[in-house]
Amino acid sequence: MQHFPIFLAVAGRRIVLSGGGDAAMAKLRLLMKTEARLTVIAAEIAPDIRKWAAAGKLQIIERAMEPGDALCASLFYAANEDDVEDARVTAIAQAEGALTNIVDNLAESQFITPAIVDRDPVTVAIGTEGAAPVLARAIKADLEERLPSSLGVLARIGKTFRHAVDVLPMGRKRRDFWSAFYFNKGPKAVAAYGEAGVLPALENLLDDHVMTGAVQGHVDLVGAGPGDPELLTLKARNALDKADVVIHDRLVTPEILELARREAIIIDAGKTGFGPSMKQSDIDALIVQHALDGHHVVRLKAGDPTVFGRLDEEVEALEAEGISYRIVPGITAASAAVANIGQSLTRRGRNSVIRLITGHDTKGYADHDWTALARPGEVAAIYMGKKSARFIQGRLLMHGADPATPVTIIENVSRADQQIIATTLAELEPTLSRANLQGPAITFYGLAPRAAVSQAQTLKELA
Ligand code: SAH
């Protein structure tokens, strides 16, 4: 980070700007939102700036800047759009102790002004160190849309109400109160009654929250999808936003854990397929304990929690304790993987059944209806199938499957290091041994990557 973001106290302080044209006006529009004392110095001053001066928003000195003009200024902007003049005035301001900025000149500026989303007193500042102004604009546009326009009003009135909320216990209870205010009751009150509706809404809401007694824990059993954060559902994101505790699987990626509420406790309950692992019953107990402590627990599972996720054991443990829970589905590895090889899970005239099968279960290698699977056109998505590949291959061939049946293995689906390996049933082993995959992998029996995808993949490998 080359620039450190701060919010500078400028109320009543002096900010000086040298320049009287378009660049000066653009900066002044921002600066006039503050309570700083603004002085504009330039030999030629645009009519709009004169109007602002007449309205008492700033002071004008109508001549070129001279030594002494920036005395006691905390910030100084050079906006003459003339390199030589900007360098001259900046030298004066620096000698007089101001922090200086030259408009559109990152290298010569001591500070830069971020893109701003203004919901005063809530202000979001976005900076890219000058590297990607387009990106800053896009983020700004996105936030402008997302943050309720009444947020500023709500924050201002909410601030005056903070002491009243002391009747609620600290932590979860208070957070729930404020989140219900800012994102639900508050905006509704403003829409219905304007600013005057906000305080009564706060009072009603507080009454409701005081009435509702002890804190109840809750568990969201959430699908995290295959790894790419963009493949999370909005429900999953919202749950992560609210979580006090996140208990996650080994396969949940760091990028997704990043999205959890900053104060959330993150617990890795990772269970490697064969290595040392936390027992399922211990995980159940862990979830239950945190919920009984009154926390909002997010149990975050790779893919979809209902697919090979041992969801039912956790649900039963919660039901036994009468803990409220909700299941939030996710994109399972098979769905994400098939999309990335340009195929469908089902296809008219090819397969009207798709089997999601596991390579191993509690008893070891899992048995399946091999006769049915061996028929032409069958498709199966094999989860946890790396170690059992030879076993599956043997069973299918023994039951008469065509050795030329396409098989596709996709490792690290949706992640930066995704790898697609196309082979056939006959070649499944040794292809897999050779590939020596370290990441999670899903195997499609009966599907080859669509030609275009396979070609793109080859080009990538050659590159
Ligand atoms: N609930 C998960 C599956 C858990 S079982 C889901 O719906 O996807 C774990 C197996 O899922 C892994 O052995 C692997 O076969 C598959 N898997 C999960 N995430 C994967 C990923 N990103 N890429 C490839 N396979 C994945």
UniProtKB/TrEMBL annotation:
Keywords: Cobalamin biosynthesis, Lyase, Methyltransferase, Multifunctional enzyme, NAD, Oxidoreductase, Porphyrin biosynthesis, S-adenosyl-L-methionine, Transferase. One of its GO terms (biological process) is methylation. PROSITE patterns: SUMT_1, SUMT_2. Transmembrane segments: none annotated. Its EC number is 1.3.1.76, 2.1.1.107, 4.99.1.4. GO terms for molecular function: precorrin-2 dehydrogenase activity; sirohydrochlorin ferrochelatase activity; uroporphyrin-III C-methyltransferase activity. Residues 221-428 form the Tetrapyrrole methylase domain. Pfam families: CysG_dimeriser, NAD_binding_7, TP_methylase. Gene3D superfamilies: Cobalt-precorrin-4 Transmethylase, Domain 1, Methyltransferase, Cobalt-precorrin-4 Transmethylase, Domain 2, NAD(P)-binding Rossmann-like Domain, Siroheme synthase, domain 2. Pathway: Porphyrin-containing compound metabolism; siroheme biosynthesis; sirohydrochlorin from precorrin-2: step 1/1; Porphyrin-containing compound metabolism; siroheme biosynthesis; precorrin-2 from uroporphyrinogen III: step 1/1. It catalyses: precorrin-2 + NAD(+) = sirohydrochlorin + NADH + 2 H(+). Residues 150-206 form the Sirohaem synthase dimerisation domain. PANTHER family: S-ADENOSYL-L-METHIONINE-DEPENDENT UROPORPHYRINOGEN III METHYLTRANSFERASE, CHLOROPLASTIC (PTHR45790:SF3), SIROHEME SYNTHASE-RELATED (PTHR45790). Belongs to the precorrin methyltransferase family. This is Siroheme synthase CysG. It comes from Yoonia phaeophyticola.
